[in-house]
Automatic annotation (TrEMBL):
This is Sec-independent protein translocase protein TatA. The keyword Oxidoreductase does not apply. The keyword Coiled coil does not apply. The chain crosses the membrane at residues 6-22. Keywords: Membrane, Protein transport, Translocation, Transmembrane, Transmembrane helix, Transport. It is found in: Membrane. It is a single-pass membrane protein.
Length: 56
């Protein structure tokens, strides 16, 4: 069903999201997503160091 959306359909969906939520809410949500991804990367990076030297 979603295989035939194409570029015009994606643009229409993007416009509807912007109209419904507004630019402010979307930008703040994307900022929170970015902070979450950064936290995950830091956690994975520190977690890899813990696996190299097991204390058990």
């Amino acid at each position: 069903m979603l295989n035939n959306i194409g570029l015009p359909g994606l643009v229409l969906v993007l416009l509807m999201v912007i109209i419904l939520f507004g630019r402010g809410k979307i930008s703040s949500a994307m900022g929170e997503v970015g902070q979450g991804l950064t936290a995950i990367r830091r956690g994975v990076k520190t977690g890899q160091g813990d696996d190299e030297n097991p204390s058990a």
